Structure formats: structure tokens, C-alpha cells
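Deliverable D4.2, example record:
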Amino acid sequence: MLSRLRTEEWLAAPEKRRDFWREALNGEVLALLADGNMREAEEKIRNAAGRFGTQS
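Output generated by the structure prediction step:
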């Protein structure tokens, strides 16, 4: 997943990557990760990538 995100044009600039991860790693996702719910957290990060890519 991370390798695919790295190739996205809208994440080429460091500030865009920063903005993406700030949005993607919200409290809900961090709680899922802390609880060991990796697949659900990954799904939410993928959804955030889809939303973020259309906003940029």
C-alpha cells in the first residue's frame, strides 16, 4: 500500500504528504492500530487516499 501511495503524483510534494498523513492518521485510525485492527485501519487509510487524491 505505501509503495503505491509513494507513486501518486499528488503526493510528490512533501507538504502534500504531510497533509495526507495528518488527515489519514486521525484518532479513529490510530485507535484501530492500537487495538490491532490493521485491516480496518488500512481500509480507512485507502479511503482517505481516494478522497485526498480527488481534492488535490
